[in-house]
Please model this.
Amino acid sequence: MNRPAMPQACAEHEVAISLHAAGALEADEAARLEAHIQGCASCRAVLAASARALGLARLPPVNELERRAVGDLAGRTLRELRSRERRFVVSWRIAGVAAVAAVLVASLVSPAWLRKSQERIAVEQARQWAEVQAHQAAAEAARWQEPDLDELWDATSVLDLEPRRARATFEDAALVSYDAGVGN
Amino acid sequence: MANDAGDSAGRPTFRVLPGGVTAARREDEALVAAFLVGDDEAFGELVRRHEGMVLRLVRRWSATPEDARDLAQRTFLRAFEAARRAISGAPRLHRGGRAFVFRAWVARIAVNLGRNHRRDEARARRAPLEAAGPAEGARPAIALDALVEAERASRMRRAVADLPRRQREVLTLRIDGELPFAEIAEVLGTTENAAKVNFHHATRKLRELLEERAP
Model:
């Protein structure tokens, strides 16, 4: 069986019909729409269907059970608010005391800590200096090579003895001749 | 405020709040300021002024009346904490330089809490509102008809929960919170026309669903 087509409102009245179904039109707008609806079966049907749909979508009135449940909502809310405020104040006080305690502890501990810190720095510097020295010595040792004996021999003054001996001979002769002259 | 019974055609009707929105806002601001300097009476008065709206907004997403009460309480706690920060001058809480409006904040927070609550699918499925039956005045005399009507209402409420976010927010702020569209726009940070168009799309979807399933 074919279902009859749903009624369609006149396009220019669609929104107004929905608002009128919710009782949201101003008096003059409502009067104009009512005047149109008197002669327009489609708009009349849409208005009736809209009002029915909204009526079904609305909640039933607040019943006694609900009314009793929300009794003294103001008092309950105020008590909860004051309770939160007290918790907030206590939290801040605890935070304040903790901050003061932290400052006091820091002021007591920090001089000793700074002294220890300076000592630690000095020890650390000495350790680093010793490490550098040891490293340099190790590098020096690694670079050392056993010298070649011939080179070492050439580098000594032993080979210079002969010329020096010759010079000595010359000097001796001059001395002798001097001595001889003096002796003369 | 809405007349829950609606008119003879079944359409809900709305009463105008005495004193106007601006006067109510000024009173809210004065009460918030008084509370922030320690006036507990001002706090009580503020909660009493808005608890009806908050309860109507959160009960759609609540599993039990106690659940609704807890959500309402959380809504006010967040609103007051936000008000304290806003009034103490935290610039990030003055959204885009807009003035602080307590009622709009409360509604926004209630909508957000409801939306977050919905994420818990298990709780959403056992929402007591499904068991509460159709609205008073809509109950047919015959039991079978009553069951069919209750099933339709249940389906419509599930459909509301499945609407796109903005459409759902606008719809619930209107039919649950009973807010005028100017206020809905303020709560959602949009324009009044955009809110109305979203409401129309939501209504059309619900209407089409109802007509599709009609016997």
Observations:
- Residues 1-19, 90-98, 130-138 of chain B have pLDDT under 50 and may be disordered.
